[in-house]
User: What shape does this take?
Amino acid sequence: MLSSLGMFYEAHAVWLLPLFIFLSRILDVSIGTLRIVFLGRGMRLLAPLCGFFEVLIWLMAVSRIMGDVTSWINYIAYAGGFAAGNFVGMYIEGRLAMGLLSVMIITRGDAAALLQKFAQGNFGVTQVGAQGVQGKVRMIYLIIKRKDLSRVSAMLKTEQPDSFVVVNDVRTVAGGIFPLEANRSKGLRRFFRGARKGK
Assistant: This one.
């Protein structure tokens, strides 16, 4: 059996090594992208853990390239894995939708219907009157979870399509009202609550 595996490796070594390098780069760059996200969110446990595996995998990939510095296929696999890793990392980060966002809405129209929808969705909202260049406006401010941005955008598109909207990342927050998450496990909630600030 071992001899068969050895013969298979020798016959396909020219492609197995570049494939290993390519996949390793995808993995370490994806982890690196998440590490940067975790750092921005203040997750003191997850960021160093990601950094450990990111560097470990990177060293494995580089060591294989250094074993054969004349192979251009390895260089292409290394660069291709780096590019693909950025895409995969951004996709994973988008799917996780971690963190909080601040949303500032400025509108000249009646915002009663929009405020009612926010209240029905259990979003905490602050509304104040303000003066704009073209007259009096209403300024609505709320903090939401990143995954709820699509819901808020849909409400705005329906009720206040002409409003001026600014969205920013929020690193820490204390208190506030957020929609309930009935399907989220208590264990996972406790873990992330301890892993990041402001939660």
In short: DSSP finds six helices and four strands in the chain. Residues 2-96 form one domain. Residues 182-199 have pLDDT under 50 and may be disordered.
